[in-house]
TrEMBL record, chain A:
PANTHER family registered for this protein in UniProt: CYTOCHROME C BIOGENESIS B-RELATED (PTHR30070:SF1), HEME EXPORTER PROTEIN B (PTHR30070)
UniProt function note: Required for the export of heme to the periplasm for the biogenesis of c-type cytochromes.
Name of the protein in its database record: Heme exporter protein B
Gene Ontology CC, one term: plasma membrane
Subcellular location: Cell inner membrane
Source organism of this protein record: Allopontixanthobacter confluentis
Topology versus the membrane: Multi-pass membrane protein
Alphabetical list of Pfam families matching this protein: CcmB
TrEMBL record, chain B:
Keyword hit for ATP-binding: yes
Name assigned to this protein: Heme ABC exporter ATP-binding protein CcmA
Keyword annotations: ATP-binding, Cytochrome c-type biogenesis, Membrane, Nucleotide-binding, Translocase, Transport
NCBIfam families on file: ccmA (TIGR01189)
ABC transporter domain boundaries: 6-196
InterPro entries, per the entry: AAA+_ATPase, ABC_transporter-like_ATP-bd, ABC_transptr_haem_export_CcmA, P-loop_NTPase
One Gene Ontology MF term: transmembrane transporter activity
C-alpha cells in the first residue's frame, strides 16, 4: 500500500513525471537553484573572498526557496479531486498519505539539489572543506525543508490566496534550520549540522499530524 | 460480499451556524437501498459524508459494518493520466486483479477510452469512470451522491442496473439524488421533514 502511494506521488512530483494536478514535476526547483548560484556573483562582483564567505549562505537560501517552489502542487490538487476522501474510505489515514508525500517531495528535489551544489559551489568559489560542510548540512536539513513544504501545503490547501500565506508561514518555520545549517559554515566542528538534522527530524515528525489535522479540518469546513 | 449493516441513530448535522437536519434514524440491512431526497442545500451531501465517516455528525451515533465506497462529484482520478493508469492506482490499492478490472471497465462502457487522459473525458464519462473505480473497490456499502449528474439516458439505466445488482448481491446502497432514480426495494428519506 505504501509502495503504491509512493509510486503515484513520485510520478506526480519527480521531474518528468506525468501524474498529478498539473504537468507533473518540473526541473524548476533545480534550475532556480542553479540560477541563483550563477546570478549571485554578478550581483556582488567577482571578489572571490567575499563570494567564498557568503556563498554557503546563498546556497542555503536558494535550497530553501527551491524546496517550496512546488508547494501548490503538493496537497491542494488531491484535496480538490477527493483523493484524500477515497483514501480515508479505504482506511488510509491522512497521516500515512502525508508521510509518503513528504518522502516523495524530498526525493523529488533533494538528491538533484545536492548534485547541483557541486557546480554551485564552484561558481561561488567555495573551497573543498566548505563544500563538504554545505553538502552535509543540506543532507541534514533538506528533510526538514521537505517537511515544512508539505506542512504549509496542507495548511493552506483549502484557502484562497494560500500562496501568499505560504510565504509568510515559511519564514518562522525555516529560520531554525537556516540558523544551524548555514551557521555550521562558520564553525570548526559539525555541531550545527547535527542540530539542523535534529530540527529536520522534529519537523518531519510533526508534519504528518499537523497536515493530517489540517486536511480533516478542510473537510469539515 | 462481506456482511454489512448501516445504522444511524438520531443524527444531526450542523454546518457553520446552521443546523441542517436532526433526528435522522436509518437502519439498512444487507440488500436494502435508501433514496435521500430533498432540494439543493438541504444537506444530502453532508448526510452521505457522515454515513461514510468523512464528516462527524453534530450529534447522534453511526454504526457501520462493511467498508464504504463513495461516488460523488469528485472522480479522484489524476487528470493528466490516461484513464487506464488512473484507475490502476485505485485497483492496486483495492487489490483488484486485472481480469476483474477489465470487467468493471467494460460494465461501465469505458473500455475504448483507457488511453485517453482523464482531463479530456466529459462529465458523464468521468462519472462512468468513477463507477468503474467504485465497482473495483468491492465495497459493501455504496454511498452515491448525485450519481446521475452528467450521465446520459443510457448511463442512468446503467447506474440503476449496477445499484440493483449490488443490492441483489447483498450490498447496501444509499443514493442521494434530487432526480428520480429506480432503486430496488428501498426506503425514501425526505430530508426537509428533518430540517431543524
Amino acid at each position: 500500500m505504501i509502495g503504491q502511494l509512493l509510486r503515484r506521488d513520485l510520478a506526480m512530483l519527480l521531474p518528468g513525471g506525468k501524474a498529478g494536478g498539473r504537468q507533473g514535476g518540473t526541473m524548476l526547483p533545480l534550475l532556480f537553484f542553479l540560477a541563483v548560484a550563477m546570478l549571485y556573483p554578478f550581483a556582488v562582483g567577482p571578489d572571490a573572498q567575499l563570494l567564498a564567505r557568503t556563498g554557503g549562505g546563498v546556497i542555503w537560501v536558494a535550497a530553501l526557496l527551491a524546496a517550496i517552489l512546488p508547494l501548490d502542487r503538493l496537497v491542494a490538487p488531491d484535496l480538490e479531486q477527493g483523493v484524500f476522501d477515497q483514501l480515508a474510505l479505504r482506511g488510509i489515514s491522512e497521516e500515512i498519505a502525508l508521510s509518503v508525500r513528504m518522502l516523495a517531495h524530498w526525493l523529488s528535489f533533494a538528491p538533484l539539489l545536492l548534485l547541483a551544489t557541486v557546480p554551485a559551489a564552484a561558481l561561488l568559489s567555495l573551497d573543498g572543506l566548505a563544500l563538504r560542510t554545505v553538502l552535509l548540512g543540506l543532507l541534514a536539513g533538506t528533510p526538514g525543508l521537505a517537511a515544512i513544504g508539505v506542512m504549509i501545503a496542507a495548511l493552506t490547501a483549502s484557502l484562497r490566496g494560500g500562496a501568499a500565506l505560504s510565504g509568510l508561514m515559511l519564514i518562522p518555520l525555516a529560520v531554525p534550520i537556516l540558523i544551524f545549517g548555514a551557521g555550521s559554515l562558520s564553525r570548526a566542528d559539525d555541531s550545527g549540522i547535527l542540530l539542523a538534522g535534529a530540527i529536520s527530524l522534529v519537523l518531519a515528525a510533526i508534519t504528518p499530524f499537523a497536515g493530517g489535522a489540517a486536511i480533516r479540518a478542510a473537510r469539515e469546513g | 460480499m462481506q456482511a454489512c449493516h448501516l445504522v444511524a441513530n438520531q443524527i444531526a448535522c450542523r454546518r457553520g451556524e446552521r443546523l441542517l437536519f436532526r433526528a435522522i434514524d436509518l437502519d439498512l440491512a444487507a440488500g436494502s437501498a435508501c433514496h435521500i431526497t430533498g432540494p439543493n442545500g438541504i444537506g444530502k451531501t453532508s448526510l452521505i459524508r457522515i454515513l461514510g465517516g468523512l464528516l462527524r455528525p453534530f450529534s447522534g451515533t453511526l454504526e457501520r459494518t462493511g467498508n464504504a465506497g463513495l461516488l460523488d462529484e469528485k472522480p479522484a482520478l489524476d487528470p493528466q493520466l490516461p484513464l487506464g493508469k488512473a484507475l490502476d492506482f485505485w485497483a492496486g490499492l483495492d487489490g483488484v486483479d486485472s481480469a476483474a478490472k477489465g470487467t468493471s471497465i467494460t460494465r461501465v462502457g469505458m473500455a475504448d477510452l483507457l488511453d485517453v487522459p482523464v482531463r479530456f473525458l466529459s462529465t458523464g464519462q468521468k462519472k462512468r469512470a468513477a463507477l468503474a473505480r467504485l465497482l473495483g473497490q468491492n465495497a459493501a456499502v455504496w454511498l452515491l451522491d448525485e450519481p446521475l449528474n452528467g450521465l446520459d439516458r443510457e448511463g442512468v439505466a446503467l447506474c440503476e442496473s449496477l445499484v440493483a445488482a449490488h443490492c441483489a448481491a447483498g450490498g447496501i446502497a444509499v443514493v442521494a439524488s434530487h432526480q428520480p432514480i429506480a432503486l430496488p426495494d428501498h426506503v425514501t428519506l425526505n430530508l426537509p421533514e428533518f430540517a431543524a
